[in-house]
UniProtKB/TrEMBL annotation:
GO terms for molecular function: ATP binding; glutamine synthetase activity. This is Glutamine synthetase. Its main location: cytoplasm. Belongs to the glutamine synthetase family. The keyword ATP-binding applies. It catalyses: L-glutamate + NH4(+) + ATP = L-glutamine + ADP + phosphate + H(+). The lineage of its organism: Bacteria, Pseudomonadati, Pseudomonadota, Alphaproteobacteria, Hyphomicrobiales. Its cofactor is Mg(2+). Its EC number is 6.3.1.2. Catalyzes the ATP-dependent biosynthesis of glutamine from glutamate and ammonia. It is found in: Cytoplasm. Residues 4-86 form the GS beta-grasp domain. One of its GO terms (cellular component) is cytoplasm. Residues 89-339 form the GS catalytic domain.
Length: 339
């Protein structure tokens, strides 16, 4: 029987944003293992801010499994962290707080920077490159350099081979900044795949001596764009029933829950949500049709289609935890009656 390399992945207990952790176990299977075949495993929670040293065992419960073409017989196993009983979710386990709704769809747009020697990839050793303008969706050595696109393409291929539902990639507004989009049906699917895609990107960049900078405003208060992770979302009701009255109630619910949303939309978001650079102010809630300066952008198609379709919450930032983001969005939606 072939021996499989199972990379168990989980999120640690660091706040405000968790880090990815992973370790390998080797197991024999007749063929690529299904989720049901994958055993629980454990780790030392005292090294990940998830337990005290005296009783430090935490349990890893596999929740989705992906082929890993970078290793012979490789698998990436996304896990939830459980208490030692194996059934109670650990307090750091945000995935377990997501309402189970197969009709909920999410599309996340992950922006990030490549960093080398503490600077965005392609920046000169001192000073700055030519100002923003040609980099967004740009081509040519002076715009994208020699290595960024190679990493982006490799990342895409590894993710597609894993079955991750990428919907697209693009060079972003700042030099060294890129984006990929992942869409998934079901309240947890896109978030699971986002964390695994982040893992693949971080690991891939290791061999190039490059870091992935997920901070939302790595260049501070300059004229360089920050990074977001727009969360596009819909539910069965929003897609099939919708209507102006429901939409207005939904937007009031979002306005009322504004602080709960901002609390999980990623650290340092006040640096990014300034009202400039296609963002809304962190202090207000707004929605607008096709408005990239609103908290929530309503696509033209939504209005034309009698207030049915999906909405884009533009506030989540690049460092946000998609589990916490999906959890809060569905929580707020659940407060609005649907009939
Ligand atoms: P933009 O950069 O203009 O905001 P993108 O094309 O980068 O747009 O991202 C739009 C996202 O919206 C995609 O990730 C897509 O999967 C997602 N999306 C499209 N339709 C739906 C839907 N019905 N429910 C949830 N997300 C959706
Ligand atoms: Mn050991
Ligand atoms: Mn986009
Ligand atoms: Mn973008
Ligand atoms: Mn967007």
């Amino acid at each position: 029987m072939p021996k499989y390399k199972l990379e168990y992945l989980w999120l640690d207990g660091y706040t405000p944003v968790p880090n990815l952790r992973g370790k390998t176990q080797i197991k024999e299977f007749e063929s690529f293992p299904t989720l049901e075949q994958l055993p629980l495993w454990g780790f030392d929670g005292s090294s990940t801010k998830q337990a005290e040293g005296r009783s430090s065992d935490c349990v890893l419960k596999p929740v989705s499994v992906f082929p890993d073409i970078t290793r012979t017989n490789g698998a990436l196993v996304m896990c939830e962290v459980m208490m030692p009983d194996g059934v109670t979710p650990h307090p750091s386990n945000a995935r377990a707080t997501i309402l189970d709704d197969p009709g909920a769809w999410f599309g996340f747009e992950q922006e990030y920077f490549f960093y080398k020697n503490g600077r965005p990839l392609g920046f000169p050793e001192a000073g700055f490159p030519a100002p923003q303008g040609p980099y967004y969706t740009g081509v040519g050595y002076k715009n994208v350099g020699d290595i960024a696109r190679q990493i982006v393409e490799e990342h895409l291929d590894i993710c597609l081979a894993a079955g991750i539902n990428h919907e697209g990639i693009n060079a972003e507004v700042a030099k060294g900044q890129w984006e990929f989009q992942i869409f998934g049906k079901g309240s947890r699917k896109a978030a699971d795949e986002m964390w695994v895609a982040r893992y693949i990107l971080l690991r891939l960049a290791e061999k190039y001596g490059i870091d992935i900078e997920f901070h939302c405003k790595p260049l501070g208060a300059t004229d360089w764009n920050g990074s977001g992770m727009h969360a596009n979302f819909s539910t069965t009701y929003l897609r099939e029933v919708g209507g102006k009255a429901y939409f207005e109630q939904l937007m009031s619910a979002f306005e009322k829950a504004k602080d709960d949303h901002i609390a999980v939309y990623g650290p340092d978001n006040h640096m990014r949500l300034t009202g400039l650079h296609e963002t809304a102010s962190i202090h207000t809630f707004s929605w607008g049709v096709a408005d990239r300066g609103a908290s929530i952008r309503v696509p033209h198609s939504f209005i034309k289609n009698e207030y049915k379709g999906y909405l884009e919450d533009r506030r989540p930032n690049s460092q946000g935890d998609p589990y916490q983001i999906a959890s809060q969005i569905l929580k707020t939606i659940s407060t609005v009656p649907t009939h």
